Amino acid sequence: MSSPETRRSVVTGMGVIAPNGVSTETFWKATVEGISVLDRVTREGCEHLPLKVAGEVRGFDPADLIEERYLVQTDRFTHFAMAAANLALDDARLGRADYNDSPFAVGVVTAAGSGGGEFGQRELQRLWGQGSRHVGPYQSIAWFYAASTGQISIRGGFKGPCGVVASDEAGGLDALAHAARTIRRGTDAVVVGAAEAPLAPYSVVCQLGYDDLSKLDDPARAYRPFTDGACGFVPAEGGAMLIVEEEAAAVSRGASVRAVLAGHAATFTGASLWEASREGLAHAIRGALADARCAPEEIDVVFADALGVPAADRAEALAIADALGRHASQVPVTAPKTGTGRAYCGAPVLDTAAAVLSMEQGVVPPTPNVVDVCHDLDVVTGRARPAELRTALVLSRGLMGSNAAMVLRKGSPSPS
């Protein structure tokens, strides 16, 4: 086995279940065209709640990708994760024949911020309305943050290191970093990512306590970060799963190396302390750059956190300037999530997928619904911008105070 210093983690497959597409291809087409799918909330039981606009995943039938025996014991957030994992495994051409003789060489890591709220609410309603005998046996596992990790590993026969990052939004990037560390320690491949389903009534009521949640009822104005009209964020469901492999193992089986997870760092600055997040996010960016051995001027595109809260947007713009120096005003910045909403832990993984596709296609996708940028950032708006992209920086912050940054390098068939 190669030494930890030479074991690079590469992305070989991606699967996306998002409000703007239930496949990677449809997600990317909508993303690069700058299509916004934000709309009025239609999920049953949510129609009369103060949250009016969200990013809903529509046209998704989990039965098309997942066997019935798994569907009945899992929540919608796990349906998204399992379906995305299917797509990612297919994209990476990683099948059972590749690991039948070494099932302990493949692990699973997911991130989750809310768990299975819809499943849990339904069973608790049965408990109070009909009695304990009407509560199904899967209530004990379906709501749990680790449910997606467990079900993906069981279904796929993956017996390697498994885990879950129970965190705020930045947990999506932290899960990718956890997978990379796992590979450095000797695992050959990790199915990793995050998917959330926060649009059930109980889950929405919990979110109503967030002061940063947008309550506007106009989909075109509800989520507009970096503008004078910023009034908070719009939540979303869905997410993405990636196949991350040790580079030599991936190349030896003929897999395509789509990107390299080059560097990551994370900090914590406290819940909703947005002024403090400037220093914390800048420190995370510097740490990710150092981990990737990447100079600030090598960053070709930034996928911003873009919370949509004026103080948070200002802190992020200043953090980018603090960490990238003079290069900050020259690098294009984008936030495709303004067209889909923030899927909590799933949001930065969707951004990571978009960053990989951007580097492959040589284009920076636009930031939907954003025009009048009021910060010193080169935010890409209107339409996609062609560019030679070799290195991308993905940023994420959570409402509870986490900050994370990840550096991605464009894929190549062998180490540079």
Automatic annotation (TrEMBL):
InterPro entries of this UniProt entry? Beta-ketoacyl_synthase, Ketoacyl_synth_C, Ketoacyl_synth_N, PKS_Beta-ketoAc_synthase_dom, Thiolase-like
Occurrences of domain Ketosynthase family 3 (KS3) (ranges): 6-410
Q: Which UniProt keywords apply?
A: Acyltransferase, Transferase
Give the signal peptide range: none
List GO molecular-function terms, semicolon-separated: 3-oxoacyl-[acyl-carrier-protein] synthase activity
Q: Which domain of life is it from?
A: Bacteria
- What does the entry give for GO biological process? fatty acid biosynthetic process
One Pfam annotation reads: ketoacyl-synt
Gene3D superfamilies the UniProt entry points to = 3.40.47.10
What protein family is recorded?
Belongs to the thiolase-like superfamily. Beta-ketoacyl-ACP synthases family.
- Record protein name field: Putative polyketide beta-ketoacyl synthase 2
* Taxonomic source organism: Streptomyces angustmyceticus
